Amino acid sequence: MATKRRRAGKKKRVATAAARRSRKGASGTKQDAKAAEHFVRGVLIRGEAAKRNARGELPLEATHEIVATPGGKLPVIRRRRFKLA
Asked: To 10 degrees, the CA torsion angle through 60, 63, 67, 73?
């Protein structure tokens, strides 16, 4: 069985620039913050984010959990599952 070889002059790409930036601890740009805010607002408007109930369960329609609600800011959400329907 033949195996594939890489060309001698090409290096395998390991990480993207964004991944390298996050590993170095560099803060995101204003554009990144704006995109994140837009995403969170969209999830909230579509009703895909919810808090856990008293039994610790998320509603079936929720894909994200609201983990914190800092005063005067958008809530902090975490992905918990994919959309079922």
From this structure: -120
- The CA radius of gyration of the chain, in Å to the nearest whole number, is 20
DSSP string, 9-58: TPPPP---HHHHHHHHTPPPPHHHHHHHHHHHHHHHHHT-EE---TTS--
Beginning with the edge strand found earlier in the chain, give each strand of the sheet holding 76-79 in spatial order: 49-50, 64-68, 76-79
User: What digits encode the pLDDT tens for the residues 33-82?
Assistant: 999 999 999 999 999 999 999 999 999 999 999 999 999 899 999 999 99
3-class DSSP state for residue 59? coil
**What was the pLDDT predicted at 28?**
72
